[in-house]
Write a structure and sequence with these properties.
Layout (H helix, E strand, L loop, with lengths): L2 E3 L1 H12 L9 E4 L2 E4 L7 E5 L19 E3 L5 H14 L3 E4 L9 H9 L3 E5 L17 H14 L5 E8 L11 H17 L5 E7 L3 H10 L16 E5 L9 H4 L1 H6 L6 E7 L11 H5 L10 E4 L5 E2 L4 E2 L2 E3 L6 E3 L1 H12 L38 H9 L3 E3 L7 H17 L9 E2 L4 E2 L7 H15 L13 E3 L7 H12 L36 E3 L26
Parallel strand pairs: 4-6, 4-12, 6-7, 7-8, 8-9, 9-10, 10-11, 11-12
Antiparallel strand pairs: 1-16, 2-3, 5-21, 13-14, 15-16, 17-20, 18-19
Helix pairs in contact: 1-2, 2-3, 4-5, 11-14, 12-13
Length: 560
């Protein structure tokens, strides 16, 4: 049965649902491997994915049909108010937002959901250049700044349950070295959250996969490389995107295996996505299993996928459709079936918070043929050091086009090939998550890396001005050293503080975390199109496909 309500009727329904709701939503914390509200009750994520899908371009390089643009679901107050009655009908206490724009105003949506007792899980990455490239992963200043700016904007809201530092970055055994960068991101995000006294949890959402690499991935993201039982680099919340339960399946057929895999896990775990579509209609009978006493010792709930329509390689997801004018919500059988199952879910309020035990962080998994990640993590990206370096580079990247994100990768490949032909290498900008070796400039923005390599080539060719052209994309910096020895001295000085770990700080000019005023830089929460974003700016420039065939070395300038 399908139902359709006009927006005005939805507003009236919202008023009825909000009656008696305590606006002071409780803080959720982790004790051991379980989540608890401030009053000591066990907290289960009874959630739904809440993200309108952006543009999807089907291609051989996009097998999962991941979007290249996004629509911020928390920046349109009218839409959030429209959807609230339906989210309440579903009985959810959590929504997951996959991409948000820190420059927009989120006050209306976040307050609306907070008043209704609905928490948010916010993914910090953005489509395309605002996320880790699983084929050439790095952890750099621009991505760290993007994460910190997003946290900064949302830090004033009391209903942020967790921030995800990545979604499906590792998807196969041969890509497990990328986990070193995910773990470094978790470390630095945790340090920043601690510095601003935020209670938000640090999470990651993983694709389901073969246990030979999925098990060590989960253990790696919650282990302590130092062997001192420290949680400084650990997640609080491991999410598994699990679609094993199809149709009217059973625990034994669909969940027994993954239950056993995570039986001894040390931090909280949940299904960050679930809801198989290969055996329609979706009955959602897995809800009864997931929230049962059989699975509650291991899992803390899950997020059903997806409230909005979403196209994937598997087919079409979605529980509702929205009219073209944005005013009408039409629900489907997927919606009503999930509503029924969530209403019947009654997970046990155990163990008690006092009986949950203390957190422990075991040693990290050892490398083997299906687990490639080193226990040596990249340093915390240091913006000040990278800025100092950039200011003193003799050949600087000055793009001839405003769409410079489209040329950085190819220019880096070209510049590195020229340096290699001159007898040098691009080791200073390279990262290797398997060997645990990271070049001195590998934590800088890709544009800084490009200026570094261009300068290397420029100096190697006797400071010939034509050697800095790169098709009109380079400019000689007359204030910079022009000899290799002088450049090496200045670079060493700039990068002296770039190694090791530190507490990240806000980028220059960013507003401080505050609970009293909006930190939005623009945009309107009332326009459905205001939050539609295509990434093409410096702070999100990431993963440009810089695949340099160079060994890692500790040296800086490689050409005398």
């Amino acid at each position: 049965m399908r139902t359709s309500l006009r927006f005005a009727a939805g507003l009236a329904l919202a008023g009825a649902f909000l009656t008696g709701v305590d606006a002071a939503i409780q803080t959720v914390t982790r004790n051991g491997r379980y989540l608890y509200t401030a009053d000591g009750n066990r907290f289960y994520i009874k959630g739904v994915a809440y993200q309108e899908q952006g543009a999807v371009v089907a291609s051989a390089s996009n097998p999962f049909l991941e979007p290249s643009t996004f629509i911020d679901p928390l920046a349109n107050g009218t839409a959030c108010t429209r959807d609230l009655p339906y989210l309440q009908q579903l009985g959810v206490n959590t929504i997951r937002a996959y991409s948000v724009n820190s420059s927009l105003d989120h006050d209306s949506c976040m307050q609306t959901f907070s008043n209704a007792g609905i928490y948010t899980i916010i993914d910090l990455s953005l489509p395309g250049n605002g996320s880790m490239d699983r084929d050439a992963p790095t952890w750099t200043t621009n991505l760290l700044d993007l994460y910190i700016e997003t946290i900064n904007v949302f830090s004033k809201y009391n209903n942020v349950l967790a921030y995800n530092v990545g979604n499906e970055v590792v998807i196969a055994a041969n890509g497990t070295a990328a986990a070193t960068f995910v773990k470094a991101a978790a470390r630095d995000v945790r340090a920043y959250l601690n510095s601003i006294k935020s209670s938000a949890l640090v999470g990651y959402a993983s694709i389901d996969g073969d246990p030979t690499w999925l098990d060590p991935l989960a253990n790696y993201l919650s282990c302590d490389p130092s062997g001192s039982n420290s949680g400084a680099t650990s997640l609080d919340l491991f999410g598994l995107n699990d679609y094993e339960w199809c149709g009217n399946s059973t625990f034994q057929a669909s969940y027994a295996g993954v239950e056993g895999q995570f039986a001894g896990y040390n931090v909280a775990a949940y299904f960050s996505e679930y809801g198989c579509i290969t055996s329609p209609p979706r009955l959602w009978t897995e809800v009864g299993a997931l929230f049962s006493s059989q699975m509650s010792p291991v899992w803390s709930g899950g997020v059903a996928f997806s409230y909005f329509p979403a196209t994937s390689a598997q087919g079409q997801f979605g529980m509702v459709t929205i009219s073209t004018d944005g005013s009408t919500v039409t629900t489907s059988s997927d919606f009503t079936n999930l509503q029924t199952q969530y209403a019947a879910a009654s997970p046990p309020n155990s163990p008690s918070q006092s009986g949950a035990g203390t957190a422990t962080y075991p040693s990290c998994p050892q490398q083997n043929s299906s687990w490639l990640a080193s226990n040596t993590l990249p340093s915390t990206p240091n913006y000040a050091a990278c800025q100092c370096l950039e200011n003193n580079l003799s050949c600087q990247f000055t793009p001839s086009t405003s769409n410079y994100t489209a040329i950085v990768g190819s220019l880096l490949d070209y510049a590195c090939s020229l340096v290699g032909q001159s007898g040098g290498s691009c080791s200073a900008i390279s990262s290797n998550g398997t060997t645990g070796q990271y070049g001195a400039v590998s934590g800088c923005d890709p544009t800084v890396m490009l200026s570094y390599v261009m300068s290397d080539y420029y100096i190697a060719n006797g400071a010939n001005v034509q050697s800095c052209s790169f098709g009109g994309n380079g400019t000689v910096n007359n204030k910079a050293p022009s000899s290799a020895s002088a450049a090496n001295t200045v670079s060493s000085s700039c990068l002296a503080s770039a190694s090791g770990t530190s507490v990240p700080t806000l980028p220059a000019g960013a507003p401080s975390p505050s609970g009293s005023s909006s930190s939005s830089g623009g945009g309107s929460g009332s326009s459905p199109n205001a939050a539609s974003v295509v990434l093409a700016d410096a702070r999100t420039l990431m993963g440009m496909g810089v695949l340099v065939a160079a060994g890692i070395a500790s040296g800086l300038w490689t050409i005398a």
